[in-house]
């Protein structure tokens, strides 16, 4: 039991200094990583690898969906909720069908959301190869609007419960 205590302390320290923006970015990256492992599991015909990682991707998307403030009802928030819901409906089908198109589509959506998050919320410049059109830098009002969708975005860190949930998605 002693090693488990050390791991728990490490995980708590790891997330403690992260902002909500960094945590959301970590979830997007974790989802993309797990989607790659799902693909590998399908290609290798490794049911366990596919299943474990598929369930982790579903849990990450569900957490992203749950992080949207429930009282926000503008068009972009409703679109994001709908997109997450559609992904959550489609992903479980992969466990029965091994449909790579569902995985590829989900990967494209999550990748695009990650890019938008990095650029519009975190203010990072897009990578030169991915950059298709030059977009103006987001205004502070746009950043606040996007951040406002997140529960707890006014706090400097997530609650202990939120941190515990995020630990399951560490990659």
Provide a descriptive summary of the structure in words:
There is one protein chain. Residues about 130-135, about 140-145 and about 150-170 have low confidence and may be disordered. This protein has helices at about 1-15, 20-45, 45-65, 75-90, 95, 100-120, 140-150, 160-165. The chain is about 70% helix and about 0% strand. The protein is mainly alpha-helical and about 170 residues long. Helix 1 (about 1-15) packs across helix 8, helix 2 (about 20-45) packs antiparallel against helix 3 (about 45-65) and helix 2 (about 20-45) packs antiparallel against helix 6. The longest helix has 24 residues, at about 20-45.
Pick out the low-confidence regions.
Answer: 130-135, 142-147, 149-171
Distance between the termini: 22 Å
Judging from the principal axes of the Cα atoms, what is the shape? globular
Give a count of the beta strands, DSSP E runs of length 2 or more. Answer: 0
The Cα radius of gyration reads 17 Å
- Estimate percent helicity: 55-70%
Strand content: under 5%
Helix and strand string, N-terminal first? Answer: HHHHHHHH
Q: Describe the main β-sheet briefly.
A: none
Q: Helix tally?
A: 8
Question: Would you tell me the structural class of the helices and strands?
Answer: mainly alpha
Average pLDDT, rounded to a whole number, is 78
| Quaternary organisation | single chain
Which properties best describe this structure?
171 residues, mainly alpha, disordered C terminus
Describe the secondary structure blueprint for this structure.
Blueprint lengths: L1 H15 L3 H24 L3 H20 L8 H16 L3 H4 L2 H22 L18 H9 L11 H8 L4
Helix pairs in contact: 1-8, 2-3, 2-6, 3-4
């Amino acid at each position: 039991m002693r090693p488990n205590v050390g791991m728990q302390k490490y995980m708590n320290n790891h997330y403690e200094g992260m902002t909500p923006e960094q945590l959301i970015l970590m979830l997007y990256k974790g989802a993309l990583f797990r989607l790659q492992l799902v693909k590998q599991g399908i290609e290798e015909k490794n049911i366990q690898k596919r299943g474990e990682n598929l369930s982790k991707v579903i849990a990450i998307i569900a957490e992203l969906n749950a992080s949207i403030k429930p009282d926000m009802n503008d068009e972009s928030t409703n679109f994001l909720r709908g997109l997450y819901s559609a992904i959550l409906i489609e992903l479980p089908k992969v466990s029965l069908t091994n449909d790579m198109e569902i995985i590829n589509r989900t990967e494209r959506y999550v990748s695009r959301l990650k890019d938008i998050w990095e650029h519009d919320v975190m203010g990072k410049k897009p990578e030169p190869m991915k950059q298709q059109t030059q977009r103006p830098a987001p205004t502070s009002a746009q950043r606040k609007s996007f951040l406002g969708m997140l529960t707890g975005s006014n706090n400097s860190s997530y609650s202990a419960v939120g941190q515990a949930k995020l630990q399951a998605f560490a990659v």
